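Before a colleague's protein record goes any further, I have to sign it off. What it holds is a sequence and that sequence's fold in token form. My question to you is simply how this chain folds and whether the tokens agree. Thanks in advance; the entry in question is below:
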Amino acid sequence: MFRKMVLLAVSVSAVLGAAAQKREVMLDKVVAVVGGSAILHSQVEEAAREMVAQRRAQGYTSDRDPFNEALEGLMTRKLLYNQAQIDSVDVNTGEIVSRVEEQVQQMIDMAGSIRELETQHHMAIFNIREILRQNAEEQAYANAMQGEVVNKVKVIPGEVERFYKTIDKDSLPMIAEQYVYAQITKYPKSMVEAKQRTRERLLDMRERIITGQARFENLARMYSVDGSAMRGGELDPTPLAGFDKAFGDALGELKPGQISEVVESQFGFHIIQMIEKRGNLYRARHILLRPVYTSDELGASLQTLDSLAAAIRSDSITFEKAALRHSDDASSKMNGGIVSNHDILERYNAYDARLTQTKFLKEDFGKMGYKSIDDYNAISRLEVGGVSDAYLTEDMLGNQLAKIVKLVEVIPTHKASLNEDYLSLEEMALNAKQERVFRDWLSKRIDAMYVYIAPEYRDGAFENKLWVK
């Protein structure tokens, strides 16, 4: 993705710190105005402090003056925000409100109480909430506007090759050690029984809610395995097309306050409560459960795979044939068990054969929605060609299963090459092109939009010289 180097995502502490400082200073000087948006000295100072602290934590420093760099970042954000208003760019304001509410609740939990939070920031809770909402909304519009500019930018193979040839070979990125591995997976045979147990649990919860014995939100907090549990199961306002199809179909049939029957989606089993509909956006809450197996049921899968691993090690059967005959993973069994990112691309509706990868970095394991850290723990103990013992893990949707893996190849750390690391170089070429396109667009918009910088701040080393008019 195009790195948003020109945007300054101001943190909670910077936003509220600047607001508190404005209360303490009788007259907070206007440093700059972009379009209809003013930037105050206190805002730039807080943003600069936050930027320096973040970079120190990352072990990174810049030769630029932090105040000047922060000012240019804020001016860019204000320009993008104002242009988004002119172009009527859409953002999900309901999602912004929901996230701000979650953020405020987390702050209250950390402070211990609303009163303590108000004391810390020297302002009432409704002021804190409104400041965070305004900042989040402005950032969302700025990001969306930048996306409108760069998301249509593409590169073709010829451009990637030219980009590669123009890079100083000493500047080529180092590609860390990569792993190619194969797997055989086995879900418990008792999956049907486990699914039925899950349905029955949800039906019992539904009955308790309908009869007034329990509140939906409380049961969601106690039992739901979804990230929305801490919000009582409430989801961000979303159009039906944004949900899993089965989930969306069930939600679309509900009226406000109604609770669905048990719904099976790719994520597990749900009961859904409709809250309200605004335009094409649906507010709903849900309880998500996944099948849970007994230790005996899981142990049976482990025993099956341990026996298969022993047969492979004794050359009674090859790993490739064993994967084809016994693995439950449809995306790898037809390819000798070789693991790819095919499932991830399909999960996010981004499948493109050209993007298929079978080489994984250590940092790819344990990423949310990527490969399990359990896989890395298993292959890191193997020699090339070795087969692991069976172990329990979860698939990318959180379902329990057993697995054995084979380490196929370890690719040592090396400088990126066009043949071996095309996708990495393509991403670099795309980033560079998007950055050029954005800078050209920014220059044109600076020229067309009202920009004022107070005289004493005009001598800063701005990357874009057109800011000073």
Notes: Residues 165 and 225 are 49 Å apart (CA to CA). Confidence is low (pLDDT under 50) at residues 1-7, 22-26.
